[in-house]
Amino acid sequence: MKFGVVVFPGSNCDRDMQQSLQNDLGKEVIMLWHKDKDLSMFTTEDCIILPGGFSFGDYLRCGAIARFSPMMQSVIDFANKGGKVLGVCNGFQVLCEAGLLPGTLLQNESQQFVCKNVHLKTNDNEVLTIPIAHGEGRYYASDELLDELQENGQVIFTYCNESGSEDDFCNPNGACRYIAGIRNKAGNVFGMMPHPERATSSLLNNTDGIKVFSILGLN
Amino acid sequence: MTYHVQIKVMPLKDLLDPQGKAVHGGLHNLGLNNIEDVRVGKHITLNINAASEQEAKNAAEDACKKLLANPVMEFYEIEMIN
């Protein structure tokens, strides 16, 4: 399984993602400039990653302008053909703007940029510790859509406390129903606000990010 | 002919607007306690070269739908100036 990491002007987690995948997970990684559009070296078994950062300075809305980059048109086609796509942080925002994932990400309820470790609950009720770093990470969708996401098992990670339950303090941004990450209905497009690539090395004292890639079927 | 268009993009009414909330707090700190609510949006101006006002309006509508506003969180109003 090969990985492509898209680099937009303003991406700042692209190298972290590359290092993590290459050095910690032993994957082949190809960096993809947003103005290119060739994805012919990838098959639908491979995965394209949209990294974190501030693509196009977060102008207008986070991810709104990146969505129209030439490479994004190819990524949308790739996803529609069944190829795997993961968006982390700003990448998640781009996927929502591109319509590959439902809902949107709004400014944090606290009005603050939040950068810290949080606990995430998986669908198997495992609790992981993964860092977040964002100002606009409050997942929002209509109640009907949220019901649908939960019924279809499309919510892949929720914020929780250390013991895996929800309380008043474990939701770092005010996300609807504690949602930290979702997938599309077909199960090949994933978006999450937390940064698994920052937690794949024992040198960084946290390897829970490796579990995230495994849960998504990317490792 | 060039048509001048003003576009107002605002957060949907039932959505929490943290920026508006922060500004509201600031206005209270200034002693402006009679301000009950603040919401912050965007004001965008476009100059559109079009054959008719309707064509310009359609172009503005297209721009709003495709890029300038996200209907999941915002609504927009288009105003033709000339």
Task: Write a structural description.
The complex is a heterodimer of chains A (219) and B (82). Chain A has 219 residues and is an alpha/beta fold. Chain A has a single domain, classed as Class I glutamine amidotransferase (GATase) domain (Rossmann fold), CATH 3.40.50. Chain A is 21% helix and 26% strand. Chain A contains five helices and eleven strands; from the N terminus they run βαββαβαββββαβββα. In chain A, the strands form two sheets. A nine-stranded mixed sheet of chain A has the order 2-1-3-4-11-10-9-6-7, with helices on both faces. Chain A starts with a strand and ends with a helix. With 82 residues, chain B is α+β, with helices and mostly antiparallel strands. Chain B has a single domain, classed as Phosphoribosylformylglycinamidine synthase subunit PurS (Mth169, Chain: A). Chain B has a three-stranded antiparallel sheet, with helices on one face. The radius of gyration of chain B is 16 Å and the shape is elongated. Chain B starts with a strand and ends with a strand. In chain B, 16% of the residues are buried.
Gist?
The complex is a heterodimer of chains A (219) and B (82). Chain A has 219 residues and is an alpha/beta fold.
> In which order are the strands of the major sheet of chain B placed?
2-1-3
Beta content of chain B:
25-35%
* Helix fraction of chain B by DSSP (H/I, runs of at least 4): 25-40%
Order of helices and strands of chain B: EHEHE
Largest interface, with counts of residues having CB < 8 Å to the other chain, equals: A-B, 18 and 12 residues
Specify the structural class of chain A: alpha/beta
Number of domains of chain B: 1
The level-1 CATH class of chain B? Alpha Beta
Strand order of the largest sheet of chain A: 2-1-3-4-11-10-9-6-7
Separation of the first and last Cα atoms of chain B? 11 Å
| Strand count of chain A | 11
Biggest sheet record of chain B:
3 strands, antiparallel
What shape does the CA trace of chain B take? Answer: elongated
The chain-level mean pLDDT of chain A equals 97
Low-confidence stretches of chain B: none
Q: What's the alpha carbon Rg of chain A, rounded to whole Å?
A: 16 Å
- Secondary-structure-based class of chain B equals alpha+beta
Total helical segments of chain B: 2
Q: Kindly state the mean pLDDT of chain B as a whole number?
A: 95
